[in-house]
Amino acid sequence: MLDKDAPRASPTWRDPKRYLWPLGLIIPLSPFLAWGLVTLLGPGAFWTLGLMIMGIALPLVDKFAGVDRSNPPEDALAALDKDKYYRWCVYLFLPLQYAGLVAACYLWAHGPLGTPERIGLAVTVGVVGGVGINAAHELGHKRENVERWLSKVTLAQTLYGHFYVEHNHGHHLRVATPEDPASAKFGESFWKFLPRTMIHGLHSAWDLESRRLARSGSSPWTLRNNLFNAAAMSIVLFGVLIALFGWIVLPYLLIQAAIAIVLYEAANYLEHYGLMRTTRPDGRYAKPSHRDSWNSDHLWSNLFLYHLQRHSDHHANPVRRYQALRTVDESPQLPAGYAVMIFCAMVPPLWRKVMDQRLMDFYDGDPDLVNVDRTDRAAVRRLEKLSGARAQS
What is the tally of helices (H) and strands (E) in the chain? Predict the structure, then answer.
């Protein structure tokens, strides 16, 4: 499916992961796979298959498969970006995502499921929605209008349409600074970060859209406001599903949306924890660099997340497509893939044990380089303790 007008890469290089990317479609297929396993084998625990795949299977495969530090050569990047095969690996996520949602609504309404099984299915659909936010993330960064539109369509399932605005026009400008609601500070637990990023992210999205519309002489109270048209998509989607299957599906739709949001914001939490952009001589922040995001080069979880874990190169080159993202030596590295690190993030003492010393080591023990809330006395004391212990070692 190569574009015949695309630049040609070096004939000696072939993408070794080219035909592995469709594996990511296993996630939106997981409600159907769960249905099949329960039908064939019986145990209702299979309704949580999405969580089993992302939370158990992928970490185990990552553990044994190891990391992938390979990069495409420079002369292959243009051709990779133009190759439409990779786009279809993302585009196909959408119809499968919504087919799974409709199937789940049918099962919630008419299937022989008890309440625990219905909740288990909501967990699987929530995992699909969380990975769907990541697919929307990939699409929303692109210049083509159709991909930006598809990004908002993907977000409708999770009621998270403001992400399209805040992530692209807020987070990418303020990343790894105290002003960014999506960049976690040192010592800030995930459960403290979650309401902060959601509330301030929504406020930021409204402010950004209001200013965008004001520049064209328009009021923010218009359907041209991306927050309103994204919300309208969610309302229409939920309304149609309720009309088709009844009000019984509403609580499960809300549960799956909440799960998806928590999972994606947990990824946001770990991507920039404690990292701070450098400042220029004039006091302004330097351009985002490869040092401003935590990376993970674990092969299989990257295949399922469209290279989201090569996050540093994404921030350095926001419109670069996932297949062309690189890993670089200067990026700070996580000890495991996102699935394991999300679990760690949800247990604050475990997260601090795994990550705080790693952060200090990355900054050579200099506490002044760390993004920390200086009014958080407990975080400042821990930072000083870690810095002092490293200086003595």
Answer: 18, 0
DSSP state of 4: T
* Contact residues for 119 (Cβ-Cβ < 8 A; gap 6+): 252, 255
- What tokens were used for 250? 């509403």
Q: Give the 3-state secondary structure of residue 285.
A: strand
Structure tokens, 367: 């506490």
Burial 118-127 (b: 16+ CB within 10 A, else e): bbbbbbbbbb
Helix 145-155 to helix 93-110 angle (10° resolution) is: 20
Which tokens hold the place of 48?
């949580």
Instruction: Answer positive or negative: Cα dihedral of 100, 2, 139, 267.
Output: positive
Each residue's pLDDT tens digit, 166-212: 999 999 999 999 999 999 999 999 999 999 999 999 999 999 999 99
pLDDT of residue 322: 95
pTM score, whole prediction: 0.93
- Count of CA atoms in the C-beta half-sphere (13 A) of 177: 17
Residues in the chain: 393
Q: DSSP secondary-structure letter at 53?
A: I
Whether the CB-CB separation of 266 and 346 falls below 8 Å is answered with yes
pLDDT (0 to 100) of residue 6: 43
Q: Is the pLDDT of residue 24 over 80?
A: yes
Angstrom CA distances, 104 to 245, 285, 321, stand at 10, 46, 31
Tell me how far apart the alpha carbons of residues 286 and 279 are, in angstroms, rounded to a whole number: 5
The token pair that represents 385 in the structure block: 């303790």
CA 220 to CA 3: how far, in whole Å?
40
